[in-house]
Amino acid sequence: MIQIPAKVLIVDDEKDFVEMFSLRLQEAGQKVFEAYSGKECLDMLTERPDIDVVVLDIKMPGMDGIETLQQIKKKFPIVEVILLTGHGTIETAVEGMRLGAYDYLLKPADFEDFKTKLERARKRKDEQEERIRKAEQRAMIRKSGEVY
């Protein structure tokens, strides 16, 4: 079975982490984009609305991960977000899930655990897109007055 790569945006102010994580994801067959701040993340999503999953660090200078998550869910509601957190911010990650994040990972993240969460987040986004397509089709059929 051919698997279409997920389009993943990694957002973290630690450049070395982003580059290392990007390489691992690319080796696993994913299409990876990088951002180093909340603002860069939102700009990238505007440029690339086809991104499936954002991997978002909570602790960043300027616009932190929670504020960035809120903006993502406001402007790009079906994009899934996996939060990255250090041990001291698990409560913040749980709050992020209440605000719409798909899940969270503790740094340093176990790559196999991450791949599982990424796959599930991508599947959830695909399912949401399919429900939207079906709803749009039903609306078009109702509008035209045709019955199938």
UniProtKB/TrEMBL annotation:
It comes from the Bacteria. GO terms for biological process: regulation of DNA-templated transcription. Keywords: DNA-binding, Phosphoprotein, Transcription, Transcription regulation, Two-component regulatory system. The modification 4-aspartylphosphate is found at residue 57. Residues 7-122 form the Response regulatory domain. Residues 122-148 are annotated as: Disordered. One of its GO terms (molecular function) is transcription cis-regulatory region binding. GO terms for cellular component: cytosol; protein-DNA complex. SUPFAM superfamilies: CheY-like (SSF52172). This is DNA-binding NtrC family response regulator. It comes from Desulfosalsimonas propionicica.
